[in-house]
Amino acid sequence: MSVAPMMDWTDRHCRYFHRLLTRQTLLYTEMVNAGAIIHGGTERHLRFNAEEHPVALQLGGNEPELLAQAARLGAQWGYGEINLNCGCPSDRVQRGAFGASLMKAPQLVADGVKAMKDVVDVPVTVKHRIGIDKVEDYGFVRDFVGTVADAGCTVFIVHARNAWLQGLSPKENRDIPPLRYEVVHRLKAEFPHLTIAINGGIQADQVVLEQLAHLDGVMIGREAYHNPWWLARWDQVYYGGAPCPLTREEVELAMVEYMEREAAQYGTPWAHIARHMLGLRHGLRGARLWRQVWSNHLLKDRPAREVYALAQATTLIPEPV
């Protein structure tokens, strides 16, 4: 199991929160531009909490030399995997000719993978789509995977939806066109020696288990972010371990303590951290009022522990019928 890299969401604060819920799930950074890491932003982009392990660094870029330099830095900072983004359809990424655009240049992706593998000892993996725009030819994604695998990549995380580079916004492309899980299953059948994980629209244990009957792994995106308490079961259900030993209230308090440490060490406002845990009480009585407290900008100058006390008080208030 893994939690998908999500821009503006899976920062180090979000990953610290998710790690309180599951010890074994692989966590990913947001996509980080390789050039940004190299040209002066190394610490800002690569700093993470030791508690986050296992954690992977996702890179964006299309120049093998820059990718290799960024991968080397990532490995030196302690990331356990380097992942190349070949699936993001945003306009900014397209202008840089990387992300999903790279699927049109499989040999360039292969060259980038080889360059990274030559300088790091950790796994180098690729996350990609099943196609570009309205081209739904299976041969397109098959040849992409085959070419990149020849360069030494053995792990592919496949978003089971085409990336539309024209005609849809990235937000619209999260739901359009339809998911085609069968394409990912076909890839695994054709490349049984590769590790193939699936991503896209998976929201329940039953669907995860159905996919694991065909594939090697499942990556969860938005559902993990909006309904994070689901993660508390994953160690037990998917790894045969113990479920999260903390209650929701204990997780919330642990996050308050983290907010206090972050404020003391880096001056991080608690609101930058609290936004990631707004789904913690998803489905429970009082969840709406609780969220309103933690997202109330009028409280942003108060200490995190004081806001925590106000949020706890809302859980005792009956919701109107």
From TrEMBL:
InterPro entries: Aldolase_TIM (IPR013785), DUS-like_FMN-bd (IPR035587), DUS_fam (IPR001269), DusA (IPR004653), tRNA_hU_synthase_CS (IPR018517)
Lineage: superkingdom: Bacteria
Listed Gene3D superfamilies: 1.20.120.1460, Aldolase class I (3.20.20.70)
Catalytic-site annotation from UniProt: C88
EC number, UniProt record: 1.3.1.91
Site (Interacts with tRNA): N85, K171, R174, R288, R291
Co-factor requirement: FMN
Keyword Oxidoreductase applies: yes
Keywords: Flavoprotein, FMN, NADP, Nucleotide-binding, Oxidoreductase, RNA-binding, tRNA processing, tRNA-binding
Residue ranges occupied by any DUS-like FMN-binding domain in the UniProt entry: 3-303
Function according to Swiss-Prot or TrEMBL: Catalyzes the synthesis of 5,6-dihydrouridine (D), a modified base found in the D-loop of most tRNAs, via the reduction of the C5-C6 double bond in target uridines. Specifically modifies U20 and U20a in tRNAs.
Record's protein name: tRNA-dihydrouridine(20/20a) synthase
